[in-house]
Amino acid sequence: MKKLPLLLLVLPFFIQLINSHQLSTNIISQTVRNVPDIEIITINKNQNYEPTLEELYKNITFTPSGLTCYFKHIYNCPKYAQEALPAIPFKHLEEFLNHGIKTNQSRNYTSAVFRLFDKKFKSIPYLNSEELVPFLQKLPALLEKDLESDQKRKSLIKKIIRFELENNFEKLKRNPDLFIDNLAEKIIENDFTSENEISREHFCFTIMKFIETCLNKTIWSPVDNDIWENFMNTGKELTNLKEVGIIRDNDDLDDCQWTLTTRFCFFLSLSGTALSVDFYEDACKELSKGIKHLDEITEQEELIISKSASIKDAVILNYASLENESLEYYKNKLNS
Question: Of 304, 305, 230, whose CA–CA distance to 267 is shortest?
Answer without folding.
Answer: 230
